[in-house]
Amino acid sequence: MSEDNDAVELDDDAETEAVDAAVEEEADTTEEPTADAGAEGASADAETGASADAESEAAEEAEEEASPFDDDVMPDDDVDLLIPVEDYLSAGVHIGTQQKTKDMERFIHRVRDDGLYVLDVSLTDERIRTAADFLESYDPEQILVTSSRQYGRFPAEKFADAIGARARTGRFIPGTLTNPDYAGYIEPDVVVVTDPIGDAQAVKEAITVGIPVIAMCDSNNQLSNVDLVIPTNNKGRRALSVVYWLLANETLDRRGADTVFALEDFEDEL
């Protein structure tokens, strides 16, 4: 299966400027999420250098300073979520970019006056559950988690450690999934990526060898090579921590494990 559609051209510089502008108009403080609740075509070679880090830093600044309490973030306020909606919002999970693809339209609830797209957090919550259902059927050691994004590396590694999976963070070495002669060659059965753009090499190789891809996707992502989407802000430190934390606990819960991790376990100290 593939969650695909026509895509639009993306402009990372415009995205960063839009997020920065939004910060100036939002409140100065946020609430930290509580930890007591239960537990694309992808582009060729990923750009993981200075520009990607700068984009991540800009998104992190927006996440830290933006008001968590948008008036309207999902169509049904009575949906039963894994954690209180305020916890999703204070982590910035709902904050998209000022760019969108046609692929992601179904996961976008609305657009704010400043041009930023607001992701439907009820769909984020639903897809976390769906991904956990999907991962539960796999041998943990055959699950690969990747993140080239700076702020996704720690929670991705923590997620892999929590469920017994393998992680490849930072630059994804070409041939990891396709070249048996490479010393780091592995043969996973499913790949979880933090961003189909930053993790394009991992997505490309997963498609080549025919294994499914679960991806955390923002409003600007393309989904032509993604099998299961988790719609979320995939650039912010706290947003990624929350999503990986929930996915870990939900996956463990489906296996009947007694272990429950706290959100703090997935938050990297800056």
Automatic annotation (TrEMBL):
One of its GO terms (molecular function) is structural constituent of ribosome. Residues 1-34, 54-77 have a biased composition (Acidic residues). InterPro entries: Ribosomal_uS2, Ribosomal_uS2_arc, Ribosomal_uS2_CS, Ribosomal_uS2_euk/arc, Ribosomal_uS2_flav_dom_sf. Residues 1-77 are annotated as: Disordered. GO terms for cellular component: small ribosomal subunit. Residues 35-53 have a biased composition (Low complexity). CDD domains: RPS2. Keywords: Ribonucleoprotein, Ribosomal protein. GO terms for biological process: translation. Belongs to the universal ribosomal protein uS2 family. This is Small ribosomal subunit protein uS2.
